[in-house]
Write a structure and sequence with these properties.
The chain has helices at 20-29, 52-67, 78-86, 109-113; strands spanning 2-8, 33-38, 43-48, 73-76. It is an alpha+beta fold.
């Protein structure tokens, strides 16, 4: 069994309701054990015996099938998440305003240098 921290993007906002009791049941139906959720966030900690990526995709599909909306599901092991937090490149002056964003895959070199911020010129 390996522990995964499961993050579901944008639930319980904008009409995408996901009751946590139902979410825990859904995760258990898909094979997760020791399922725990955090508030109404769409975040969970689970124990898996199988592959994490296949499980994440199965959760995405189950959410779409059951609730009718599409949401990204990304999970990381506790050590992967700790590594990401440890590599946070910015000085944190107010922790409540500091965060990391997890992606499916590493961005391409082009995407790493491309800015999505409008220029001030």
């Amino acid at each position: 069994m390996n522990t995964r921290i499961l993050l579901v993007r944008a639930v319980n906002v904008g009409g995408a309701k996901l009751p946590m009791a139902e979410f825990r049941e859904l995760l258990a139906e898909l094979g997760a054990e020791q399922v725990r959720t955090y508030i109404q966030s769409g975040n969970a900690v689970v124990a898996l015996s199988g592959g994490a990526q296949a499980f994440d995709r199965a959760v995405e599909q189950a959410l779409t099938d059951r609730y009718g909306y599409v949401r990204e599901v990304i999970s990381r092991s506790p050590s992967e998440l700790k590594t990401a937090l440890d590599k946070h490149p910015f000085t944190v002056s107010e922790p409540k305003y500091s965060y990391i964003c997890l992606l499916y895959t590493s961005p391409s070199p082009r995407d790493r240098t491309r800015s999505r911020m409008p220029s001030s010129a």
